[in-house]
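Ligand: protoporphyrin IX containing FE. Inputs:
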Amino acid sequence: MPRCALDRVAEGIRDVLEIRIDQTAALVDMNSLLSSRAGWVINGCYLVTLAAPVASLFSIRLVRRKEYAAHRRLQTILACVGVVAVLALETRIRLAGGSGALLRGSPHAGSEMFRVIAAVHIAVAVCTYAAWVWLLFASRRAFGKTLPGPFSRLHKRVGWGVISGLAFTAGSASVVYYLAFVA
Ligand code: HEM
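Predicted complex:
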């Protein structure tokens, strides 16, 4: 093979190898982004937190199709799974010896910024879950009597409030999770 043709082949191989090396570096970056210090209980609770607003929006689609019984069933399951996840998270924190012990690996633990973000996240999450559980019991009682009916207005208002709270909780949980277990 003439010399310049050999050079071109070598250049081509070098280009391909460089692309491979770039891709591998990107994958390694991705892995370090996804690897976290949280255990499976916290990861499970985080996944439930992310799924709750999405699944709640799906339950609204059921309302629009007038499938009220399915909407009731899905909301009941979601709220129960949510409460169990929060109880599991709380138990995990206590077993670790408190949130301070669990956050030991984070460079943000104890910082003012982290404390404010975590406090806002917890306050909204607690109010949202309290409203969710209240709405669940009140709506199950009212179903077939005043819902649909006079209770519908309050149900819709509180319902959209809960879904907004679940969305905020998922967003703020993502920030807390990142600062506590990834950064
Ligand atoms: C488990 C008991 C529940 C029952 C029996 C129930 C039943 C209903 C019914 C019958 C409607 C239609 C009301 C009407 O158009 O007059 C409705 C709408 C709605 N529900 Fe529920 N629901 C329950 C739980 C929940 C929960 C816990 C939430 C909050 C996450 C929620 C959020 C909503 C929302 C936002 C709407 C209004 C949808 C729209 O804007 O059209 N529901 N529900």
